[in-house]
């Protein structure tokens, strides 16, 4: 497994495993505590695993947590997704930086997203399963959502949106979220 820094987002990493394929399919390690530790992360910090299943065109995000934030590992275990990270940490050298990835069940790559970054994705295939490993229990009172189509972020979503949650549909702009966080 190889760990690569994400230049657009300070402290973010892409973990790329080496799948072993044969006539039966493939096998690969999707989490390795030693590799995670080698980039300065505590592998024992992750306390909750979740999975979502989306169909082609579904958009989830852009989400983040207020307070202490939430670091997470994100992996598409089946299908393909277009994944987006936005750095919203005012003291970060990559503040307001954006990074885009295609994560897939074929590669099983995992993206580490530091606390204080917004995250969202769009399903590119008929079915896309996305696994999350987060570093603290979910508290819905800390949920923050930013409009997926905010012109300041100009995320190049690859497909028309077929479905999204009511919360995501009604999300405020980045400017409104930042103003609220300052106040």
Automatic annotation (TrEMBL):
The lineage of its organism: Bacteria, Bacillati, Actinomycetota, Actinomycetes, Kitasatosporales. Signal peptide: none annotated. Keywords: Isomerase. Transmembrane segments: none annotated. CDD domains: cupin_RmlC. This is dTDP-4-dehydrorhamnose 3,5-epimerase family protein. Belongs to the dTDP-4-dehydrorhamnose 3,5-epimerase family.
């Amino acid at each position: 497994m190889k760990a690569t820094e994400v230049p657009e987002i300070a402290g973010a990493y892409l973990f790329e495993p080496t799948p072993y394929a044969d006539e039966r399919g493939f096998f690969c390690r999707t989490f390795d505590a030693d590799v995670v530790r080698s980039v300065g992360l505590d592998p024992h910090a992750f306390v909750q695993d979740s999975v979502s299943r989306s169909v082609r065109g579904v958009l989830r995000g852009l989400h983040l947590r207020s307070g202490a934030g939430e670091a997470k590992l994100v992996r598409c275990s089946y299908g393909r997704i277009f994944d987006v990270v936005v750095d919203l940490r005012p003291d970060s050298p990559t503040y307001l930086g954006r990074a885009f990835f295609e994560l897939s069940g074929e590669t099983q790559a995992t993206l580490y997203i530091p606390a204080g970054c917004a995250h969202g994705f769009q399903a590119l295939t008929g079915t896309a399963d996305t696994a999350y490993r987060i570093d603290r229990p979910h508290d819905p009172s800390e949920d923050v959502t930013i409009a997926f189509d905010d012109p300041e972020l100009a995320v190049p979503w690859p497909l028309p949106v077929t479905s999204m949650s009511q919360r995501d549909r009604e999300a405020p702009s980045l400017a409104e979220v930042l103003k609220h966080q300052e106040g």
